Predict the structure.
Amino acid sequence: MKKILLVLLFLIALPINHRYALAAEQNVDQGYISYLTALDVYRLSHQDYETAKAAYLQYKTPTSQQDLLKRGKKVLADRDEVLINYLNFLLLRLVISPGVNYPDQTVFQSKIKVEIQYYTNHENSVNAVFNLDDLTKKSQEAQKQYQTTLAVANYVIGIILIGKTDYAFSQVEQFANLLETYTVSNSISDRDPGLIVRWTLEAKNNQLLSRNKVNEARTKFDKLASSYTVDVASTFNDGKMNVLQSFQYLRTQYTFLKQILETQINE
Amino acid sequence: MNNISVDNSVMIENDAPIIPQEEKPLKTLPMPLLIAFGVLGVLFIGIILVLTFSSKGTPVAPTPTPPIIKQLPTSTPSPTISTRKIATNSALQALFDVESSASSILNQTDFTEQKLIPPQLDMSISFDK
């Protein structure tokens, strides 16, 4: 009876889980569309701002000044809106990323939310400005915050990339473990035992190298936590390079394992 | 009733004399035939009853079977070739499934993540120069 109930619960939970996953992916797509829409709006308002600024610098009339103030407030608000939408999209993307562990999910979601809150507040404060000097100050505040935002965004992207590698790593590891169990339990002799042993050692060596590279990548990405002491772009690129190297080692490990499997089948 | 006269000596003219009918004697079967029919009837009812109860799944008394002398195995029985083959096939199938999953992940993973790259924005907007 209990078994039947468990099976029924599993059958009910399976489509629900699938539906949640599907809904999460749809949210990500929707988030990306919103981000692109906000980016288009910002580009248009930036053009308007450039035109208004050129007119103001040329004529210096109160009308052109008021027009610049109006266009300036709009471009700053639209810029904040782009960043809010981008960070929202990043947040949604982080949630569905495979391989990212729970503590990282929690930490980075809160980091992103702090950034979103900043730009939301900034957008509201921009609307309350009544002269160009204050508007310039508001722009500079956001410019300063943007360095932190860039570091957080790159940090999150790095964590997503590591999550992908970890996920692939777990799959290859499962394959390796199952293959080892199969080989031992069936004790299938092969024509060249030395070759199998060598391939097995090579596979394990590549697995180890892959892990080391992931750890190196994590160390580099962790530096992005202090955005003012590092070059965000170069630190991120170095970490990403380590992730790619790690993944390449995983591919090599998989190739050796596949060779062993094919040998077992041919026996 | 109207024709009945008071004088009992006078006969009713038109009334025909009633002739009493003779009773036919009952034909009885001979005793051996009756016994034979009785036996056949009992047999028929018996067969009907047996067929009825056996079709409804009523437990029939089991026929006594000779006792089976169980021999304890002296050692763990080795799997037959067929069972070993099935076990190997299922293990292989699981292995292929995992291998296929790992392969697809390794081939489909994309590290470019173009969509995630932060937007290029003019952060140095100023209104005084």
About this structure: The longest helix of chain A spans residues 2-59. Chain A has a mean pLDDT of 89.
